[in-house]
Each structure stands twice: as C-alpha cells, then as structure tokens.
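In the current project phase, we have settled on a layout for protein records. A sample record is reproduced below.
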Amino acid sequence: MSDRLVIDSLDFVRNAGSRHGKIPLVELVRLHDLLFDQEGELIYQISGQFDKNKRPGLYVEITGKIHLHCQRCLDKLVHHIDLQTFLILAKNETELNLADDDDTIDAILAIPDLDVFNLIEDEVILSLSIALCHADDECSMFKLKSNGNGSADKTKPAHPFAALAALKKTN
C-alpha cells in the first residue's frame, strides 16, 4: 500500500504546489464495485493554480486504463481514463453554494487535509457513464453463433432470452 498524499489545499495553491504519481487500483476501494478486476493503476498530476479571476484552484490530470463490466454481456470492458479538470477551492459553504449555481465551474470546499487519492477517485467515479457497453461489433451479445462447421450462422443472431424461453417450454 502506497503512502496517501494529503495536502493543505489553499497552502498548496499559494505555494504553486505540484505533485504527480501512480495509484494502484487496489487502493481505490469505492471504485472496486464498478471494476471487473483491480489490475492496473492510474497516473495523476495535481497542481495548485489561480484561475483568471484570481480564485484558488486545483488542476487535476488523470490517465490510465481500468476494466469495467459491459452492461450488456457482463464481460470485461477496457475503459481508458483521460481526465483534465480545474476545481475551484471554495473557502466556505457560502462560496461553495454560489459556485454550484454556476454550471461552468466545478468547486470543492478548501480543507487543510485534502486526501488527493480520494479526490482522484471521486473524479474517476463522476466521469463514468451510467451504463458502459462494448461497441456493437465487440460485444459478445451481438457476436454471431457458430454452427459447428466453423462458419458463422448469419441467418439469425442469438436472442438474449433464448435460453429462458427454452427453460420455460420444458417446465
């Protein structure tokens, strides 16, 4: 288990801090339920900056490859992560509520003990679609059935409930 990076968010911005590293997927526990397996790692870079309006913020870049479940066939789905985001640091709840009213910016509460791994995990989870699937030509739900002699049966694709219909007829 690697050491977790904890920063004082406003101090990090004031000092123009910058950190980068790798996080094994094993350490991102909240992400585990969404993963097919825990192989791989995410590469991150975080830097403290002021935006054009002189507001403090964190620029976060995350790249990597994770394996998810295809929501159609439930097989492994390789998903590439390539995120870049700028998070405004709100000094209090009032500033955070004002930032939430503006759809063009993302904001988090500035805290003295911000766990960067949790922040990165949050950003990855928020970036995922509700139902990720293979492309139609890659999904095993749509692959043609073999007819036994090595050629594909192109007359009719397998219906997802064909096995259920067969069981229903026998009972």
In short: The CA atoms of residues 31 and 165 lie 36 Å apart. Residues 144-148 have pLDDT under 50 and may be disordered. The longest helix spans residues 116-127.
